[in-house]
Amino acid sequence: MARVALADCKMLLRDILVEIRVAPYLPANASEVRAFNDRLCAQGQTEFLLPPEAPEQTPPGSQIRDSYFLALEGTVVRGGFRLVRFPAWLGFGEEIEALNCREPLSEGIINPKYSFVALKLLKEMQKQGPYLFAMGMGGGQARFARFLKGAGWTVELVPFLFRVIRVGPFLSELRLLQSSRIKRMFSRAARFTGVGKFGVSLLQAKSIIAGCRLRGATIENVTEWGTWADELWEHFRQRCSFCVKRDRVTLMHLYQIGKDRTEAFLVRREGKPVGWVAVLRSKMSGHKYFGNLQVATILDGIAYPDAMDATVTLAARRLAADGADLIVTNQQYAPWVRAFRNAGFLSAKSNYVLATSKALSEAIARQPEGRERIHFTRGDGDGRIHL
Asked: Which residues pair with 375 in a beta bridge?
């Protein structure tokens, strides 16, 4: 708290010299936004930039609404952020609006004169509503994650899980295994001797047990979200302490099946819908983590408790049959994490962060095992970037 109070004082002193106002991103701001991006790029900050053109207005009636804001010094852009509004559910029965803070940028990362802009942006975000969250951010030590933690938000890593389908490409393409001469030698030896395939199979052996629990379960591609999505949501939400809505109408906005490489699978048992997953397929090319692997990302999923293992196992089998070298996912909801591990998925260090505002953190903490029953996935944040 002392750090934030000190930051507030610094911001007031800066405001005496530099007047910054936060306002919606309008078409007239586009040229100044591009100039802002150019200044960041000139200093090597190229991974995240503001959109070079004013984003289109969200259509009326949309379940998910985007807003873009800029930090302006006169007409000059000194930062900005995106705010995505989701209909959401708190576990004690309250429907709320949850706000996802995305892509916050400040000129302070290249010019200390504007270091106070980040706090100005955070204050503006918090004016928009009490229940805020941020996801991704590149890990717990990333600048924005540390800033939010200092501001009193709860910050934690979202578990990362993966399943290797084709061991040869995995050993030769995963950048972590190619980062030094010794690692390259070991991965090459593991690939050509068969030790790698044997070792991975042993580590993922739980999938054999999960495969024995599939009696009567089938999986199919779906081209649209049906009424079954509402039925599954009604049962699933009762077990969550917090979750962005996953009813049929929201899903149509959240995951547009057939667009941007997004697919969905429905799992049935004895003909009855018992679970679904949303998937993103990516053929990587020189990716900083995955090289040239064919990667399938399980973005999201909902299932009855006794169908979670079957849902994950069948989805993994289908993705393997369709050519995936590697399947990855980030899951916060503890029962989902167990289901993925039961299906042979392994855990690795996560760089995907969840941060929740004070009000949202307190609402979650008031519920039994609240943090374990949060349902957050890559679909809720900027997790589809670079995949």
From this structure: 243
Rounded Cα gap, residues 351 and 160, in angstroms: 8
Are 78 and 106 spatial neighbours (Cβ–Cβ below 8 Å)? yes
CA distances from 308 to 1, 22, 293, 350 (A): 41, 45, 27, 22
Residue type, 385: I
What is the rounded CA–CA span in Å between residue 289 and residue 295?
A: 11
What's the average model confidence in pLDDT over 136-156?
Answer: 86
Rounded distance, CA 330 to CA 336, Å? 10
Closest CA to 170 of 277, 320, 280, 298: 320
Task: Identify residue 331 by its one-letter amino acid code.
Answer: Q
Distance CA 138, CA 115 (A): 20
Give the model confidence (pLDDT) of 75-132 as tens digits.
999 999 999 999 999 998 889 999 999 878 999 999 999 989 999 999 999 999 999 9
Instruction: Report the alpha-carbon distance of residue 12 to residue 19 in Å, rounded.
Output: 10
Q: What is the DSSP string of 329-366?
A: EEB-SHHHHHHHHHTT-EEE----EEEE-HHHHHHHHT
Could you tell me if 335 and 308 are in contact, meaning their C-beta atoms sit under 8 angstroms apart?
A: yes
Residue 152 in this model has a pLDDT that exceeds 80: yes
For residue 192, pLDDT over 50 is answered with yes
pLDDT at residue number 198: 61
Q: Which own/partner pairs from 284-292 qualify as long-range (CB within 8 Å, at least 24 positions apart)?
A: 284/173, 287/175, 287/386, 288/175, 289/174, 289/175, 289/176, 290/173, 290/174, 290/175, 290/326, 291/172, 291/173, 291/174, 291/175, 291/178, 292/169, 292/173
* Position 73, amino acid: E
pTM: 0.87
Alpha-carbon torsion angle 263, 268, 274, 276, nearest 10: -10
CB 354 within 8 A of CB 135: yes
Strand segments, DSSP code E, in 91-175 are 94-106, 132-136, 154-157, 160-164
**What structural domains does the chain harbor?**
2-129 (3.40.630), 160-348 (3.40.630.30)
